[in-house]
Each structure stands twice: as C-alpha cells, then as structure tokens.
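W.,

You were right to be curious about this one. When I first looked at the sequence I had no strong expectations either way, so I just let the prediction run and decided to look at it fresh. Below is the sequence, 271 residues in total, followed by the output.
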Amino acid sequence: MAVFYALLLGVVQGFTEFLPISSSAHLLLAREIIDWEGSVALGLSFDVACHVGTLLSILVYFRSDVTRLVQVSLRPSAWGDRLRPESVLFRAICWGTVPTIVIGVAAGEFVSGSLRTTAVVAVTLVLGAVAMLVVERIGKQDRDETTLTVWEALAIGCGQALALVPGVSRSGAILVIGLLLGLRRRSAARFAFLLGIPAIFAAGAKTAFDLWVIPAPRLDPLLFAIGIASSAIVGYVVMKYFIAYVSKYSLDVFAAYRLVLGISVAIWFVS
C-alpha cells in the first residue's frame, strides 16, 4: 500500500503543480482523505522527491529556453541588454524571485505551520477562483513575457510568494497578475513555469536542509524513486497540454473547479 500511496501523491503533485488549482491544497487534502499511517513522517522527505520530479519536468520541457537563460547568466555583460529577449526574461526571473526569497525567509515557518489548514484552503481556493474570473474579463492580453519591467516582475514575484499559502496556487497567482498586467495567457503561463525553476529548487533545497538538521525516519528509496518519476512524467504531460489549452481558452474552467472544490472543503470542514 505504501507504494500505491507514494504513486498517488506523486501523480497529485505532478498534476496540480502546474495547473492553477494549487498543488499544496491537493496534497494536504489527499493526506487528510487517505489518512495514511506514517504520512506525517513521510511528508517532508517525500515533498523533496516530488519537487525534484516537477523541477526535472520543467527543465526538460523548456530545455531550449533554460539553455539560453543559463548562457545569459554566465555573461554579466548581457544582463543589462534591453534588446535581447532572453536578457529581458533573465532579469524578470531574477527580480520575480526576490519576493519569494524575502517572504519565504521572513514568514515561511508561519505559512507552513499556522496556515496549513483545510479552512485556509477553502477560503483561498474560492478567492483565487473569483480573481481568475475577474482578470479574464478586464485583462488586455496583448503583451508577452519579454516586455516585463522590473516593477512588473516584482509584482508577479509577490504573487508567487503569496502562493506559499496553501490553496493560492503559484501558477494561478502568476497568471492572475500577469493577465492583470496585460500578458497573453500563453506568455503568462510560460513565465510562471520558468519563474518556478528557482522557486521550486529553493523549496526543495530548504526542505532537504530541514531534513538534514532534523532527520526524518529512514524511508524506502523506492518511495523516493516513485515520487520523482511519477511527478516528473505527469508534470511534463500537464505542462504540454496546459500551455496548448490556455493559448486558446480562458481560465474559467479552472475557476469553476476551484469554486466547487473550495465550497466542498468548507462544507466538509464545518460538518
């Protein structure tokens, strides 16, 4: 059963990490529903494995973009170039990562502790749904991610940092702010995934450090392999089809899903 649950949680992570429906909310709810004995002990270490998997899926899917961004990062003379799209994108990712680092360091313990509840998840799922419905109707959607200014990148970064709260959704927050700033859905989604590289890496590294300081019970390496493989494979497929979907259609279906799930969680919480 442990193998089955590891596979299930890995699939949940890979499926929800890149959709604007909140992976943290679904993992929290999955553990509550499954009530897997030992899932608390598994939590931190297994989260590292799942983060590694989703990070690998981004690096593989966006390998060409990542290669160009790495090339820019190794050439300081290119950092300030305002004409090369990859230089502009590199700066936007750097600035967009700053709020996540600052807020993560300042309030990470509070968010991962006090706010990790089903009540918070119910509220944030609904609020996120409303935000999506609103920006779909007021955003101009006539820009791409290589036109972002420093302040706009910081604003999007604040949205990503806000996603530390379970139920907000990192990709959802970035999509909402991106659309509000006039980005096309495809451009906002692409930027969300690229901006997620340092964020997901940092989250995995921090959790790994926490485990090194306070080791968790020894776990079967097979569970880690299952978590990495399942989240990576599912994450890659979800990214591919999600980008194709948002290029043509609105976020309304995801907003509707969040509303239904949020209301259902609220009813479950009070019952």
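Here's what jumped out at me. The chain has one domain: 2-270. And, maybe more interesting for your project: Residues 2-270 form one domain.

Coffee later to discuss?

I.
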